[in-house]
UniProtKB/TrEMBL annotation:
The gene is galE. CDD domains: UDP_G4E_1_SDR_e (cd05247). This is UDP-glucose 4-epimerase. It catalyses: UDP-alpha-D-glucose = UDP-alpha-D-galactose. PANTHER family: UDP-GLUCOSE 4-EPIMERASE. It comes from the Eukaryota. GO terms for biological process: galactose metabolic process. InterPro entries: Epimerase_deHydtase (IPR001509), NAD(P)-bd_dom_sf (IPR036291), Sc_DH/Rdtase_CS (IPR020904), UDP_G4E (IPR005886). Its EC number is 5.1.3.2. The lineage of its organism: Eukaryota, Sar, Rhizaria, Cercozoa, Imbricatea.
């Protein structure tokens, strides 16, 4: 059992990972400022895990040193043990909308880079040197070859991707300092789906940017139709191909990564977390229709700026290095995503 600080634990990936970590017996402090989430997610996580006494919520901002400090010290108070402290941090908190990062780069550098810097500074002050960082396949920009291995060129094409690359570099510098850091940089491909209970899931603020939440909201009657961004891509059906990964497979990847970091010598792991399976937009639409039993109306529009034709992970390193691979297929991603959206058409605001 480890004592873990989860930043951004109320968000989409964070909430599912909190659940998996609670089920594995760990004790959690979550820090979140709810800029893109709701405290209701945390309520439901502890309910699902039946673990009210093993999760403490601190409402705070990772950019504010005093807030991060509060998260570290509230853990100590809670356990009445002055020597007890946080063993590792799982760092999800950040901003993730690519389009918004272009119009507001200051926020993206501020939260993603400065927030990570502040967190790392407080960790170092407390002697906590183990961190799992949410990186992204967005680092690879327009990939030169697919499937994409971890040693592919880092060539982000937007401020969001630049901010992730900057934090990856900071973490590499810490690892190279040989001061005992244990670091994982996990490059997620396209996380989708939800917990099969339908109690937690993805609840984006405003109009969704990403395919899965958009399709789900069309199916739930919140949006009229899906705009498919281009059917003139060099793919088998003309629509772009992505590597979708069930959020619970991703959460399991964090658990195995953490166990590896804590049981081995200080090091830095850099891993792609994807399924290795490429699916087109129209394949996803067809499967979602089959699962929800209704048509998903769509229209073809022009390509979205910054999209690539095909991004698929080479995740063989994660399999050989930490023994992780995905276990859930597209049907399960659609089924679980629909269980969440149909039970909560307006997300946590229901
Ligand atoms: P999310 O927006 O659902 O979760 C992020 C959480 O961080 C939210 O709860 C938000 O309120 C919180 N947060 C944001 N700024 C904060 C701050 N300054 N202080 C404290 N809390 C703050 O996003 P997600 O999809 O769960 O993504 C989690 C992480 O994974 C992010 O770092 C994201 O960049 C990365 N990632 C996501 C995807 C994806 O497709 N969802 C893909 C690759 C990488
Ligand atoms: C996008 C971001 C990526 C980020 C990821 C997670 C861009 C260019 N890429 O990835 O940097 O890491 O989200 O936040 O923004 N699609 C439609 N209609 C829609 C939405 C999407 O056709 O309404 C298509 C897209 O063109 C793409 C596929 O569906 O081919 C998946 O899109 P999306 O879910 O946004 O993920 P990515 O573009 O892979």
């Amino acid at each position: 059992m480890a004592n873990l600080l989860i930043t951004g634990g109320a968000g989409f990936i964070g909430s599912h990972t909190c659940l998996v970590f609670l089920e594995a017996g760990h004790e959690l402090i979550v820090i979140d400022n709810f800029i893109n989430s709701s405290p209701e997610a945390i309520k439901r996580v502890v309910q699902l895990a039946d673990a009210h006494h093993r999760l403490t919520l601190v409402e705070g901002d990772i950019c504010v040193e005093a807030d991060v400090e509060k998260a570290f010290t509230s853990f100590r108070r809670k356990n009445f043990l002055f020597h007890s402290s946080i063993d590792a941090v799982i760092h999800f908190a950040g901003l993730k909308a690519v389009g918004e990062s272009r119009t507001n780069p200051l926020d993206y550098w501020g939260v993603n880079v400065n927030g990570s810097y502040t967190l790392l500074k407080v960790m170092a002050a407390h002697g906590c040197r183990t961190i799992v960082f949410s990186s992204s396949a967005t680092l690879y920009g327009y990939p030169q070859r697919v499937p994409i291995p971890e040693d592919a060129p880092i060539a982000p094409i937007n401020p969001y991707g630049q901010s992730k690359a900057a934090v990856e570099q900071l973490l590499a510098d810490l690892a190279a300092s040989e001061t005992g850091w244990r670091i994982a940089r996990l490059r997620y491909f396209n996380p989708v789906g939800a917990h099969p209970s339908g109690m937690i899931g993805e609840d984006p603020c405003g109009i969704p940017n990403n395919l899965f939440p958009f399709i789900s909201q069309v199916a739930a009657g919140r949006r009229i139709n899906l705009k498919v961004f281009g059917n003139d891509w060099p793919t088998f059906d003309g629509t772009a191909i992505r590597d979708y990964i069930h959020v619970l497979d991703l959460a399991a990847g964090h658990l195995i990564t953490l166990e590896t970091l804590l049981s081995e010598k200080p090091q830095m792991l850099t891993l792609n977390l994807g399924s290795g399976v490429g699916l087109s937009v129209l394949e996803v639409v067809a499967e979602f229709e089959a699962v929800c039993g209704q048509p998903i109306p769509y229209e073809i529009v022009t390509r979205r700026f910054g999209d690539a034709a095909k991004t698929v992970a080479d995740s063989s390193l994660a399999e050989t290095r930490i023994g992780w691979r995905t276990t859930r297929n597209l049907t399960e991603m659609c089924r679980d995503g629909w269980a969440w959206q149909s039970a909560n058409p307006y997300g946590y605001a229901n």
